[in-house]
Specification:
This protein is of the alpha+beta class. It has two domains: about 30-260, 3-Layer(aba) Sandwich (D-Maltodextrin-Binding Protein, domain 2), CATH 3.40.190.10; about 320-550, Dipeptide-binding Protein, Domain 3 (Dipeptide-binding Protein, domain 3, Roll). The strands form six sheets. Strands 11, 14, 15, 16, 17, 18, 19 and 20 form an eight-stranded mixed sheet that branches. The chain has a four-stranded mixed sheet with strand order 1-10-9-8, with helices on one face. α11 (about 340-355) runs antiparallel to α13 (about 395-405) and α17 runs antiparallel to α18 (about 525-540). Belongs to the bacterial solute-binding protein 5 family. This is ABC-type transport system substrate-binding protein.
């Protein structure tokens, strides 16, 4: 207990100790996070800001290839991709010798090497009921024998499916095949931690991030400034698979075989205000900015291109397809828009045909989006770039469809009545924000064009989501950001048994469900793609969704930043980035 108390006291001081002074020749990456970080514990953190830091401080078994598209896994602390048994249940990894945790008093002066047993401990830790890990769902019930951990948690409780038969061999056995299991092992949550550190600082692991990643914590002033220093013991070496893109090939040529990271330190600020981020970038306080705020697009972009004065400074604008789908869903159990009868299908189809994607993209998204043809965005496994929705934007056809299916009665003000003669009014929830109000007006215009009255009910998004899970919301625009880059992560949003969870539309169609169940057992390939095509057709036949857009993030970077390529899944690319210090100094002096 005395040791633990002393260590905790040392921690409280170490977070605020000054970093080594920056030397003129040091390569310093200047960055921001858009929200404040929380505790730096891989098992607990789930917000994007904290995950951005964790993936630089800690190491999972696998990482994503920096250049391969679609997103592809490669070994990180493993020597190679695992061997997998013929039944798809047993994964055997070989841990790369010579990987060490960064120094900490918990190791009592010795250099602490990572072993397979450390990964066993780290994965077991996700089951700790005291942590309430938001990532436990990835493993619970899937690891053979993990019921023992759920019955009585303890790091020494034996689990048949988590074994370290020798110092560098890790064996994981599943209860059933899972085609996405390796993606789980590339998340920050499955990163390796040291038991000595966790036990030396009880309840304080999030304040004492000791990992094996390319960076280590240098300074941490909460919700203000974080400094990461290059880990002198980093064993990461660059390897990637570039495509045909010349920029990818140039990055690969510049980095191939080189030790990571390439910069000496990363200085991170918390910048929650849109204006502060944009002005900070333009003032060279940040080396790059991802996702230009919609409200500030016109500051830097004109007619779809970077403004000439910024281009003259060497600033580069790129558009990145985020693995995200915006969609408007309709509650299939709602008495107005729900159900599977022909008249309700016709109503939802007409609503879908009334949506003007071109106006949405041009006016609201400022050109930084593409039309969603299906639930899948580009760069997700199973995405078909040739697929086109059979439901067009066609208000005239939508009006004819409604007339044909009994919605031809009109109120004195011209709005349609339902087939039973009663007034027809749709209620769409929306966020109580400026953006929410702009989207309300777009939908009002689209639906009024087919004679349908709509009213809007504004609330906080968190409250709308709660009500959606209870089935009390009729219609709402939502979006899904990928958890892992596979089609299953999106098509499960329409799977009947997921109603009340991610399936807000409460779509429950046997023909869809059976295809989804077959598809989730298949690996990426022609047979699964055929099922995905049929699921798309069912989606467009019954219209529980109106697929809207996939965001194209407008990203800006300064010319002194090298090796930049945004990854579709990982939050940061800091380990790969390099800085031309002389060019930065020259251009910043010239600007000022």
């Amino acid at each position: 207990m005395k040791f633990r108390s002393a260590a905790a006291a040392l921690l409280s001081l170490s977070l605020f100790l000054p970093c080594p002074a920056v030397q003129a020749q040091d390569k310093v990456l200047h960055m921001f996070l858009s929200t404040s970080e929380t505790g730096l514990d891989p098992a607990v953190a789930s917000d994007n800001a904290t995950l951005s830091l964790l993936e630089n401080l800690f190491d999972p078994l696998l990482r994503y290839d920096y250049l391969a598209r679609p997103a592809t896994l490669r070994p990180n602390t493993a020597t190679a991709m695992p061997t997998v048994s013929s039944d798809g249940l047993t994964y055997t990894f070989r841990i790369r010798p010579g990987i060490h945790f960064t120094p900490d008093p918990a190791f009592k002066g010795r250099k602490r090497e990572v072993t397979a047993a450390d990964y066993v401990y780290s994965l077991k830790r996700l089951y700790d009921p005291a942590l309430k890990s938001p990532w436990a769902y990835m493993f619970e019930g899937k690891i053979a024998g993990d019921a023992a951990l759920r019955a009585r948690f303890g790091p020494d409780v034996p689990v048949a499916g988590l074994q370290a038969p020798d110092r560098y061999t890790l064996r994981i056995q599943l209860t059933a095949p899972d085609n996405n299991f390796l993606f789980y092992l590339a998340t920050a949550a499955s990163s390796v931690v040291a038991r000595e550190v966790i036990e030396a600082y009880p309840g304080q692991a999030g304040n004492h991030p000791i990992g094996t990643g390319p960076f280590m914590l240098g300074q941490w002033k909460r919700s203000d400034r974080i400094v990461l220093l290059a880990n002198p013991d980093s064993t990461a070496v660059f390897a990637a698979t570039p495509g045909d893109d010349p920029e990818d090939r140039a990055i690969a040529a510049a980095l191939e075989g080189k030790r990571l990271p390439r910069v000496d330190r990363v200085e991170v600020r918390i910048a929650e205000e849109f204006q502060g981020r944009m002005l900070g970038f333009l003032n060279a306080d940040y080396d790059y900015l991802e996702q230009i705020p919609e409200s500030m697009t016109e500051m830097v972009v004109h007619d779809g291109a970077l403004k000439p004065d910024l281009a003259a400074r060497g600033i580069v604008l790129s558009r990145f397809p985020v693995l995200q789908t915006y969609y408007m869903w309709m509650n299939m159990t709602d008495p107005v828009v729900g159900g599977y009868s022909k008249d309700r299908i016709a109503l939802r189809r007409a609503i879908s045909m009334a949506y003007n994607s071109a106006e949405d993209i041009a006016l609201l998204k400022k050109g930084f989006a593409i039309k969603a043809e299906s639930p899948l965005p580009p760069n997700v496994r199973g995405y078909d770039p040739r697929y086109r929705s059979p439901v067009p934007y066609d208000p005239a056809l939508a009006n004819a469809l409604l007339d044909r299916h009994g919605y031809n009665g009109r109120d004195p003000d011209g709005f349609r009545r339902a087939p039973d003669g009663k007034p027809l009014t749709l209620t769409m929830h929306s966020e109580a924000t400026v953006g929410g109000r702009l989207r309300d007006e777009l939908w009002r215009k689209c639906l009024n064009a087919i004679g349908v009255r709509v009213v809007f009910k504004s609330d906080k998004k968190t409250e709308i989501i709660k009500a959606s899970r209870l089935g009390t919301v009729q219609m709402f625009e939502s979006n899904w950001i990928v958890d892992f880059p596979d089609g299953d992560n999106f098509y499960q949003l329409l799977y009947g048994p997921n109603a009340g969870r991610a399936n807000y539309a409460r779509f429950n169609l046997p023909q869809y469900n059976v295809r989804y169940e077959k598809a989730r057992l298949l690996q990426d390939g022609a047979e699964r793609n055929r099922l995905y095509f049929e699921m798309n057709q069912l989606l467009h036949a019954y219209n529980p969704w109106v697929p809207l857009t996939h965001v194209l993030s407008g990203d800006l970077r300064h010319p002194w930043l090298k090796n930049y390529k945004r990854h579709p899944v990982e939050f940061t690319n800091w380990r790969y980035l390099d800085i031309d210090v002389a060019q930065r100094a020259r251009l910043v002096r010239g600007k000022r």
